[in-house]
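In response to reviewer comment 3 from the previous cycle, which asked for concrete evidence that the modeling workflow produces usable outputs, we include below a single protein chain processed end to end. The sequence was submitted unchanged, and the resulting structure tokens are shown without manual editing.
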Amino acid sequence: MGYLHTIAVDDKLWLGQIDGQWADHDLNIETTEFATGIELSRALAGGSLDVAIMGGVTSNFPAQGRGQVIMLNSIENATARLYAAPGSGIESAADLKGKTPGHDGGHDGRHLPAPRVTEAGIDRKQVDVVNAKMPDAVQAFVGGSADAIALWVPFDLRVQEGLEGATEIDDAGNYPDAAVGDGWIANNEWYAENEDTVRTLIDAWLDINDDFRADPEGSLEKVHAEAYEGAATLEDLTYRVGFQTDYSNEEWLAAYEDGTVLDVVGTAEQAYVELGGVPTYVEPSEFFDTSLFIEQAKAHLE
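The workflow returned the following structure tokens.
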């Protein structure tokens, strides 16, 4: 299993390893960390991974036929944020015309500026967007090489620490349609041959989610101690969690049954289409069979 090391993506993975729910379901999970969703998706499509847990690209590569979504892990509502450099003259998205903003070229940080620029009546060709991995984009912004930056938490804390006078001018929380689903994605061939294991993954995840929701603070402390102690402070993790939605199993079941999860995936996919990252829009139901989660969740809640 490959994963991105961000709490909205891998929290259940680690709690299940710590408390043993994966093992309780006879699942022996071998983990490999990846730096970006693009690299992770390529490894998944290439067959070196059976399953991957990723962020915004949950709505990207599966829509292009490279993976099947098993389930969502969380929904990021306000993690994407837009900052302007001091002296840039940027006070809103409308002021981005002729400016140079930076962002990660393949992650959900790009979803925030695109709709805002469109709403402001600016053609994206009038904005000189610079793509870089997020740590590099932040360093460039702090160093004065970009007028603005589209980022996600907790990189806003790094900006605040490194560039006095940097101003947050927008965030995804102002736009309900900008929510991003973090998901568990299976390799196509593996998925087709391992439905029983897919269902077992869901069953174990439901157990883990029960425990996480019963004690969010204690669970986060466990995950930090086991997997994040050298990568982020507990305060950083707590800050990040404040910008995402984590449902109880009953709430997740309702979100699957009423189509909310497909809407979240589809909205993010549409942003990729508009940005040229996905050639054509594909209905999420074609790469995300929600019936498996619905069936397992109903049995779990009986």
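Residues 2-76+180-301 form a domain with the D-Maltodextrin-Binding Protein; domain 2 fold (CATH 3.40.190.10). We consider this sufficient to address the reviewer's concern, and the full set will be provided in the supplementary archive.
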